[in-house]
């Protein structure tokens, strides 16, 4: 509930490793300055990271008039991390070294009607096998596999409780995956994956309160409050997509009416376009990706219907983001996921305009709205980061690679 | 941003004093069990509270086979705290002893047109003078005066930035008050006062994430996340009243349309009644309190228009509270402030029904919705608690009663 000394210690460990990843090589003295921690604390944490093999000593630098200072750097070959992004239409797998460089990628398409849990698990296992083989890493060097699945997730039991766009209810995903994958497994959803990616490598790094707005088929808002991920009491915080924007408005698959998602998720944007221009050639019925791509291209060419559709979408999105700003008073709002990536700057500009009309003066003045600066798939990166955080949480314990929330065939849950 | 060791220390100090207030006398051993802190930590914190004169040694109890255990209790006479609740139509002042018993009360009505800052400050000064005189406490024993003012507040500069219902913009309230009141002053708004009251003495005590929904003339949602108050980056988090419930709906005084407040604040409830029954005798035009009182009495008598009005209000409120549940996944939602107090159980029952229709299954299952258990004015109590927290923050510093956020004639801001 309230943070414990152990939470602080784990957070500080994250902070030091983040800094080393961002700037290698570096000295303990520089780390103390950058993180605001004492030199003694930094020295202890660096020792733990050395013991874990995540970083390595790489020589010395002169210090003016003093003893030479030892330098440490992240050890890219100290282990591999795998991030899995399960979406409605694909499974995307990436393998990273410890500097979070992508060493291998695998993509598996999910055809319509191919979203049964066993089918998806087969694709995940194939993708993980493929990236390990491509990268040529030994299985023992894989520190863990982070898996992102849309919807409501119980990460402790490893159950995908409700994934409407896959039509999943209470799927014991981690158990199913553990039947095929021998590495420690970590389950969570794309919202939280994107927040963790922004906290470690993106626009939320070093910020106080941040909100990561995910715009895809589904939409949600990952919350980074007080410098850490806000999960809520049962790990389901962030369901902004199912907050009401238009009472008694469009029917949502959650059973509600007028949810934010029905106006700004990819199918909602298609509906916005359809309402403005029912026969528009931009519309690719049944194909969200093609429609959003067509829209992005047409906006770039100043097509009036496309511009109007983006403006109308931004009107809804601006009201919904203003709700987040008024309620949470964040320092930064980050637009992420594939719809934000494709509609990009034109959407951002319209959203900023709409938010300026809706939000209250004081929280508005304290916030900036940006597109994610993460150049790759933030969901895979965030999922891999869950595995990295798992390895860091276990630092100093006897069996460092088998944390309470990790699951594998060789380390069954307690 | 992320919690520091010092934040943890302050939070632990709060926790120990809360426990002593809840259960006096008590031993260090019992406190360690109740708070989960080590006996050594508890002993240190108890020592600090003894040094501050907030608690006192009151004897010993036998421990089975061991040395007798020292008992401590809150020292009611160790100081006095004053809480000021500035509302649209009144100024309410309460003086508390350290067990947070009310020793004196003063009420000042604000007549229409009497809301100029200088006039309100005059009423506050008169109220504070009155309670000190009534209680017969020496001025030096007043640890501080907490002042709650509606709207957006910069608590560090002591400026009431935007109080729409008082028509205040950038009023340097703490400076004005310091011209009349010689005690340390703490400024914040009723949202945050109510959260702090619930955290210390109410339904949020010992809980993880909690939301305190304030239903008055204005409405808002105070956020207690991770066991502490979530302020946001510029201390304006909680403006749930100005999140959009009905896009393009009723005009709000904030300039927006369809804000939650326009449907569930007292004037919004009057509008709901007017739309259902334009000539209803329950309507007292221009008098919110009389209308809400009439509504409460009529509901108790099963008057169909009143029942329907409460149901319609709960429909809006349920949708808005579901947004909070879906977004934040709190353990408890507390209904507070005068409209909630007057409409009470009938409103609560309808709200629970509406939330069950709107909220997602997983966060809904983790949440309970309750009326505040605080029997007195939670705003005055919370405001007084700001002064108590101020005294506790300064524990161990050289000048304990002059914290950075306290302001008085004798202790000007640094
Ligand atoms: Zn929905
Ligand atoms: Zn408003």
Characteristics of this structure?
five-stranded mixed beta sheet, alpha/beta, 3 domains, 414 residues, Arc Repressor Mutant, subunit A, kinase (chains A, B), 16 strands, homodimer, globular, binds zinc ion, Nucleotidyltransferase, domain 5, kinase activity (chains A, B), WH-like_DNA-bd_sf (chains A, B)
Report a brief summary of the structure.
The structure is a homodimer of 414-residue chains. Chain A is α/β, with parallel strands linked by helices. In chain A, 41% of the residues lie in helices and 21% in strands.
Helix vs. strand class of chain A: alpha/beta
Bound molecules: zinc ion
Overall number of strands of chain A: 16
- Count of individual helical segments of chain A: 13
What number of domains of chain A? 3
Pfam family, one (chains A, B): HTH_24
GO molecular function (chains A, B): kinase activity
Biased composition (Low complexity) (chains A, B): 402-414
Organism (chains A, B): Streptomyces echinatus
Protein model, in words:
- Two copies of one chain form a homodimer.
- The first copy, chain A, folds into three domains: 5-74, Orthogonal Bundle (Arc Repressor Mutant, subunit A), CATH 1.10.10; 78-193 and 377-394, 2-Layer Sandwich (Nucleotidyltransferase, domain 5); 204-371, ATPase, nucleotide binding domain (Nucleotidyltransferase, domain 5).
- In chain A, the strands form four sheets. Chain A has a five-stranded mixed beta sheet with strand order 6-5-4-7-11. Chain A has a five-stranded mixed beta sheet with strand order 14-13-12-15-16, with helices on both faces.
- In chain A, 41% of the residues lie in helices and 21% in strands.
- The relative contact order of chain A is 0.12.
- The longest helix of chain A has 25 residues, at 304-328.
- Chain A is globular, with a radius of gyration of 22 Å.
- Chain A contains 13 helices and 16 strands.
- By secondary structure, chain A is an alpha/beta fold.
- The first copy, chain A, has helices spanning 5-22, 28-35, 39-51, 117-135, 173-178, 190-201, 261-264, 266-276, 288-300, 304-328, 338-358, 361-365, 378-393; strands at residues 26-27, 55-61, 69-74, 80-86, 90-97, 102-109, 142-148, 152-154, 159-163, 168-171, 185-188, 210-215, 219-225, 228-229, 332-336, 368-371.
- The interface between A and B is large, with 61 and 61 residues.
- Chains A, B: One of its GO terms (molecular function) is kinase activity.
- Chains A, B: Keywords: Kinase, Transferase.
- Chains A, B: Residues 402-414 have a biased composition (Low complexity).
- Chains A, B: This is Putative NBD/HSP70 family sugar kinase.
- Chains A, B: Belongs to the ROK (NagC/XylR) family.
